[in-house]
Amino acid sequence: MAGLLAVRVLTDHFDRVTLVERDRFPAGAAFRPGVAQSRHLHVLWTRGLELMEDLFPGLEQTLLGAGAEDIGVPSDLLWLTSAGWRKRFEVTRLLTFSRPLLDWAVHSRLAGDAALSLDVLEDNEVTGLLTRGPDVAGVALRSGETIAADLVVDTTGRGSRAPAWLAALGYPAPPETLVDPLLGYASRYYAVPDGFDPGWKALYLQADPPATRRTGGLFPQEGGRWICSLSGAGRDYGPTEENAFLDFAKGLRDPVLYEAIRDAEPLSPITGFRRTANHRRHYERLPAWPRGFVVMGDATCAFNPIYGQGMSVAALSAMALDRCLREDRDDAERRFQRRAARSAAGAWLVATGEDLRYRETEAAPTRLTTRVINAYVDRVVAAANVDRHVCASLLDVLALTSAPASLFSPAVLARVAASGLRRPTER
Hints:
20 strands; 22% strand
C-alpha cells in the first residue's frame, strides 16, 4: 500500500512514473502472494481514510459500494479493553474490508486514469541502485534491464535491501530498533448467520498483559461474511488447526466471540501469520543521504499489525513525500526521511508501548519512563471506558489524528482523575 500511495503522489511531480512489482496484479479483488498479511483483519482508521480520500477522491464510496462496512467506534463495536468493557459511545468511525478489496480499489484508480503517466512492470524486482557520481540515478532489475530515474522510492517492506544498497555506496548502516512481542495470528472467514443481530456489528476482545496474552477480533467484511482473527503474544500463537482454533477462541477473556463462531459456517481455511515485530530503521539519523533515493512504508518502520495503523502511517508518509517535493528540491530526500520518521512516531509509541507490557517481548530493557507512561495509559483506558470525552481523546491518538502527548493535556488529566470514582461497565 505504501508503494501504491507513493505512485499516486509521484505522478503529480514527474512526467513518468514506473512501478516495479514482484507480483502480478489480479483483475479484481483477489489475494496475491506479495501482500502476506492480506488474509487477516484490516481496518482503516479516520486519518488514514481522510488522506486516501484526498489522494483518490471517491475512494470511500467505491469501498462502501463494494460492501465495505462502516463501523461506529465504539457505538457499533463490542469492545473488551484491558480495563473492562467500553461503553458504546458515538465517537468516531472506521472502515473494515478485505485487504484485496482496498488494493483493487486503489490500483484500479491508478491503472484506469489515462491522465497519469504510469508504467507498471509486473513479475520483476529491483536488485540494486544505479549511480551517477554520489547520486542515485536509477535501478537495476532482476530481468537484467536498467531504468534511469530522477528519484527512486523503496517501498519493498520489511525485507527491504536498502541498508545493503546504501552500504555499497559508502553509507553507514542505519541504527535499528526492534520490539518483538512474539505474536502470531490465525484468521478465518465465516458466513454471518442469517438473522444474527446481537446489537453489535463488530467485536474486539483485547488481551490484558501481562496476565493474558490472547486477543480476538470479529469484524464484518464485504460479501456477508466475518473475518475472525485470533492472536497471541509470547509465542502463544493463534493456532491453524481446526479444533485448536475454536479452543483458542473459547480461551479468550470472554466467551462471546466463541459463541458467535462455534456454529457459523466456515468459508475459508485457517491461515497463520507471525511476522509481526515492530522494526524501525532510523534513516533519519544518518549523517548524510544520497540525492535521488528515499525509503518509506514498512521498509523504514514496520508495526505489529494488531493495532491497525500501518496503512494510515503509509498515507501520512505519502503526504510528507508530496510536501517535500513541492518545496525546494535541494536536500528533499533527507528532509523526507526526517518527516517520515515523525509521521510514524505516534503509531510507534502506541504499538511498542503496548507490546512492552508482555514479559516475553524481545526488546531493549524497558525504561522507567515507559513504565510510568504505561501506568498512566492504564488509567486513561479505564477512564475511556466510562467517559466519552476521554474515549474521544484516546481514539484520536489510535486513529493518528492526535499525538500521544495530547493524552497529557490538562483537560484529559482532570477527567482521568475524576473517572476513578466511576464504576466500570458490563457487557
